[in-house]
């Protein structure tokens, strides 16, 4: 299979991290970088560093020039919908960073456009593509009826001090879809809904700054027989991971829910006598797994895999609408 040829849109921190690990992803070939004019110098420096042949500061010119199969969009959250719309309209497959869009309605509009253009649209969400996630799926039935779940992903943002000092940034601007729910908690929600399905009801209890942005918050997901909790923060550190439990034992993630670094099950149901089974450790950078699968899906036009990914994204987008109080 030939590498998936990518144009990368943005010079954001997630794109920086992606490019740093590009040598570990032979399934990809980045042939173009596209950014705002004010970020052109950074993009040209990256292009030289990583051997990327073309740099554009105009999306229309980039899409007209071509030479790639798909566009990876890593812009600020509030720009996702418009950027994806332009790339899809130009006839390219799109890989769109999380959070996918501002609303579930926008997500459905993008999928309709992708269908009209006969291209694929995929959310860059690491969780589902990691080998540790497959382990959690396989072990989950052994717990019996789920009786509780708690997920946490908290880290004090490097931009939080700037925010406290009055320096504007998109991370803590609600108008730019910033905040803990749209960032860290998206990973928790994908992990929980991926394993447990959509909840019957949900609510969000946030800690908010004066401008209204949620610097931290707890999402409560009511599944009828039990409640799952998803805690995220961008203003403070915490103990990150997942505990999911039932009469037969428990599943554990230690570390960020975006990477699932340590995963194991404890089965047996008797205090102190459970048997621990460890998940296989990841051997690649966390983003390598999702992009390897995206390359395969696009190259093989695997519509079933794209439909499954679409269903997962829409489930979380519908849940985010509820948690944000939009429905």
List the helices and strands and how they pair.
Blueprint: E1 4-9, H1 13-20, E2 28-34, H2 40-50, E3 54-56, H3 59-65, E4 70-73, H4 80-89, E5 93-97, H5 104-117, E6 121-124, H6 131-139, E7 148-154, H7 160-164, H8 184-196, E8 201-208, E9 214-222, E10 227-233, E11 241-246, E12 249-254, E13 262-267, E14 275-278, H9 286-300, H10 303-323
Parallel strand pairs: 1-2, 1-4, 2-3, 4-5, 5-6, 7-10
Antiparallel strand pairs: 7-11, 8-9, 9-10, 11-12, 12-13, 13-14
Described by the principal axes of the CA atoms, the overall outline is globular
Give average pLDDT, whole number.
Answer: 96
- Helical segment count: 10
Span between N and C termini?
44 Å
Question: DSSP strand (E) fraction?
Answer: 25-35%
**Pattern of helices and strands:** EHEHEHEHEHEHEHHEEEEEEEHH
Total beta strand runs: 14
Low confidence ranges: none
Sequence of strands across the biggest β-sheet:
8-9-10-7-11-12-13-14
Radius of gyration, CA atoms, in whole angstroms: 20 Å
Counting structural domains, the number is 2
CATH class of the largest domain, anyone?
Alpha Beta
CATH topology of the largest domain: Dihydrodipicolinate Reductase, domain 2
Helical content class: 25-40%
Task: Please identify the structural class as seen in this structure.
Answer: alpha/beta
Under the CATH scheme, the architecture of the largest domain is 2-Layer Sandwich
């Amino acid at each position: 299979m030939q590498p998936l040829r990518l144009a990368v849109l943005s010079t954001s921190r997630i794109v920086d991290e992606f490019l740093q690990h590009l040598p570990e992803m032979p399934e990809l070939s980045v042939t173009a970088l596209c950014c705002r004019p004010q970020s052109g110098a950074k993009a040209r420096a990256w292009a030289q560093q990583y051997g990327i042949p073309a740099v554009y500061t105009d999306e229309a010119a980039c899409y007209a020039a071509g030479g790639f199969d798909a566009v990876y969009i890593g812009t600020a959250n509030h720009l996702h919908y418009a950027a994806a719309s332009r790339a899809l309209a130009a006839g390219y497959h799109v890989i769109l960073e999380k959070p996918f869009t501002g609303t579930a309605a926008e997500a459905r509009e993008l999928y309709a456009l992708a269908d009209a253009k006969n291209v694929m649209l995929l959310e860059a969400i690491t969780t589902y593509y990691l080998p540790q996630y497959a382990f959690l799926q396989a072990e989950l039935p052994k717990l019996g009826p789920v009786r509780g779940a708690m997920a946490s992903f908290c880290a004090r943002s490097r931009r939080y001090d700037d925010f406290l000092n009055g320096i504007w940034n998109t991370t803590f601007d609600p108008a730019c879809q910033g905040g803990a729910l749209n960032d860290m908690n998206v990973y928790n929600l994908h992990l929980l809904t991926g394993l447990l399905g959509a909840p019957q009801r949900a609510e969000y209890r946030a800690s908010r700054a004066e401008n209204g942005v949620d610097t931290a918050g707890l999402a409560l997901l009511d599944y009828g027989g039990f409640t799952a909790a998803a805690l995220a923060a961008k203003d403070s550190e915490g103990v990150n991971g997942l505990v999911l439990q039932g009469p037969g034992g428990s599943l554990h993630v230690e570390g960020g829910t975006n990477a699932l670094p340590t995963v194991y099950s404890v089965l047996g149901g008797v205090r102190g006598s459970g048997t621990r089974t460890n998940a296989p450790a990841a051997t690649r950078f966390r983003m390598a797994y999702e992009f390897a699968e995206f390359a395969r899906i696009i190259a093989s036009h695997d519509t079933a895999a794209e439909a499954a990914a679409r269903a997962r994204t829409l489930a979380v987008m519908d849940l985010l609408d509820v948690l944000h109080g939009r429905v």
